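Follow-up to my post from last week.
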Amino acid sequence: MRLEILFFVAPALCLFGFFVVWPIAKAIQFSLYRWKGFGPLVDFVGLQNYVAVLQNEVFTDALVHNLIIVVASIALQLPLGLAIALLLNRTMWGQGALRTIIFVPYVLAEVIAGVIWFQLLQPRYGVVDTLLAAVGLQGPEQGWLGDPRYALATVIVVLTWKYLGLAVILFLAGLQGVPPELHEAAQIDGASWWQSQRSITIPLLGPTIRTWAFLSMIGSLQLFDMVWILTKGGPANSTMTMATFLITEGTKRQNYGTAAAASVILFVVALVMALLYQRLVLRRDTAADRPEKKVKR
Amino acid sequence: MRTARFATAVALTASIGLLTACGGDDGSTTNADGDVVITWWHNANTGEGKTFYDDVAAEFEAEHPGVVVEVSAMQHEDMLTKLDAAFQSGEAPSLYMERGGGELQDHVEAGLTKDLTDLVPETIDSIGGSIAGWQVDDRTYGLPFSVGVVGFWYNKALFADAGIDTPPTTVDEFDDAVAQLKDAGITPVSVGAGDKWPAAHYWYYFAMRECSEQVLSDAVGTLDFSDDCFVRAGGDLEQLVGTEPFNAGFLSTPAQSGPTSASGLLATDKVAMELAGHWEPGVMQGLTEDEQGLGDDTGWFAFPSVDGGEGAPDAALGGGDAWAVSQDAPDEAVELAEYLLSDDVQKRFAELDMGLPTNSSASEFVADPALAQLLEVRDAAPYVQLYFDTAFGPSVGGAMNDEIALMFAGQAGPQDVVDATQAAADAEK
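User reply:
Got it. Predicted complex:
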């Protein structure tokens, strides 16, 4: 029995070891050296790279940007996604088409979506500014992505557009698991549509929402591609995330030691938040599974 | 628990097996037939340029029996990525392109690049002053084959519309031209500050106008930016940015990609001028439907002079590419590099307008009038300063460019640029 387990788990473990454990170990090793990306690792600097990264205002700002994106993603996509999912869950004309339209942005490759939005958001000549001009409004002089005051908010809007579809699809799937009998019973008891959504649907959707929020949080912490396409972390570092910081520092400036330190910090931040989330929020969902396991054994 | 530990051991062993499987190259420079193999990487991956280099490789093989040249023509960015990886793995190509400056210095310190000083002295002499960017401690590690200079490319028709008869030569005249263009409803200048280096070129030029050549070459050597002229350069730039000459959204504008890039705006008559290098006409041609760029309206003028500056008003900012030979390459690779700088090959390089040849015998064969004009400017300049970011290397240069971009955004002052650069430089020491 044990050998069998080993047999089936070994390939996965090999891959895990090679593509996850090994790179992490390497990153930790690099982070302790000053290294240009070639030649032997000889210039051991201890924790100096970590000190440099944590004292770097651009990095700490990037960390704050990541946290803003985590909060904003959940705060925007949760109510919007829930509302759309509840609407789309009712049988109506064009339901399938609407679901597809909502989901399309998520399916679109991130780079393509980024380039499209980059063009739409061009100052003056872009579609967004043209539409605004048509109703007598004017976008910021430097453009939505070119003004440090608006760039992060603009990126968040694009991210919401991109990832709303995922939330909606997950919520819709979760809604299929809500037994219709409960609604019927509630109706008989005289509950309004709104009341039954609030007291039945949303609580029963809890596990789905919590899992989605977890995915959203991790994605926001590791955010790279959309920012890279739209702003490369600029203007004036106003949209820099931890991931764009480490790419800039590493492949652009060839400070691989500092970049590795930043990547380890990013890893630790994501890991700590994930573990806390598991313990504090997802515990309810996993706790429900536990008695079952005991029975099996 | 024991099982888990065993499984980890299995996983680790498997990883090590995979790793050793990857690194199975013994680094020899001969193939199975006993021929000497030269690997050559370059970035002329399309059209005439690619054919030209293939021809050159074939000619070299014909002259040197028993030598095989394996040419890899790559897209520029791909080549840079692959070169980085090749240096990391210690399997660099025999002959490759070096941009000089701090990057080259890093390669030299890591023992990756061959010292060519005593191997090809005549070729080094024939190149003249342009070679300085590829020397470390008076030893030469690269043979520049094309060196261009940066200046303002402008739209002659738009300048005429605004009533500007002669291009500006001083900063005051430049400010007047900006005002005239604005009055005529024309956006004066585009700059790809989103990519940072195009913005940084302004600061570089002001530093060259404010600082003497000696101060600059000392700064490159010692990474000391304490001379007051660097702060004055920032002040000049701050004033220029204050006149608001740039295109809307310049902070997020890319340099060259697409019609809304800085080059695209100039190519499509949306702005009147842009500070850029010798590549600009070619880039603009690629960004217009008729592939003409600005065509006959293409004009060029040098970066304006600054009153009271200690630098030469005709010194030029520039840079280019050199052929370098990796440390373990066969001797024949040095001969190929030498051949590439020969009168004949440089003449053909010039005839194809592939760049600005460094071998002076080839100058007269440059066909494109804009490039020919630049060549005159370059050869008349008292010195050509290598782009500072290249000269100082990616780490210091990157920090410098970042801070200059912040200045364009109004978030950094003249002293900040110097401080950020000095801090990055001190971290290198």
